[in-house]
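Ligand: S-adenosylmethionine. Inputs:
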Amino acid sequence: MAPARQRATGVYDHRPPLRRPFTQGRGVSSTQIDPEQYRAFRQFLEQSCGIVLGENKQYLVNSRLGQLMQREGIADLGGLLWRIQDRPMGGLRGRVIEAMTTNETQWFRDNYPFQILQELVFPELVKRKKQQIRVWSAACSSGQEPYSVSIALQEFQSRGGRLEAEILGTDISPAMVNQARLAQYNASAISRGLSPDRLSRYFHSVEPEVWKVRPEIHRRVRTQQHNLLESYAALGRFDLIFCRNVLIYFSTESRQDIVRRICQQLQPGGYLVVGASESLARHNDDLEMVRTHGAVIYRRRFPGGR
Ligand SMILES: C[S@@+](CC[C@H](N)C(=O)[O-])C[C@H]1O[C@@H](n2cnc3c(N)ncnc32)[C@H](O)[C@@H]1O
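Predicted complex:
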């Protein structure tokens, strides 16, 4: 078994040996990145959060970690990994992962999943005599996805649909989870995908150019930090899972493993929604494709394949 320090950081294989950071460091520069240190950093990132960094993405490391490393007085990636291992409780590991993730999101992203919820998924769950469902927005970023689900349900209810939901939003980034929990958004975030009608119905202004999700939408959503590489057992079972625009950053093996484990968290007949560009065609025999509204979502088969 790996030494405790290595287990804590998830960094198992560093060659060449990591060097102490220079305290007067000026931050990493793409022209200076040592290929071996870059390889070790890619390995660290994939083991920590699943993200596969391309072989030639040194510029991304530079743009996302340059300032952080400069502030910390760390000269190069070897020094950064050394520091993460040397001070496992220092919070640097989390900040590096946070800086390397892409948090891009918007309200009602791609539209069709929310239309499908209102026109197919919610009515079908009601037909199956469900009154209360559980929804998981895995990798929810700053919360636009779980709140869009909550608004879609509110609109379904306003047309007579009798269904309630508990919605869990999770993300690896504590900053994103805090933002999602706060449910306050500035004009730039609000402008991305929210119609003026939905803004006035489901948000209220808390200060100039800042809006908060109204309590009737907010109350359904609970948020917590969670890494998709870790166990899902404590999260429970769900009727509907959104896992969108995150698996594209992972390896095929991680993707397959995550989809298999997500599927285990779905109730039979439960639905999985993935990103518009993410096909699961060959990933799981327990999932069937449902083609509707010119798009595809997935449903967990009932036992016996019904
Ligand atoms: C591009 S955003 C997608 C947000 C939302 N699902 C959407 O489609 O609009 C990707 C999110 O995945 C999160 N993420 C990356 N790796 C993760 C992991 N291993 N576990 C959980 N979340 C992760 C990032 O922090 C980021 O907020």
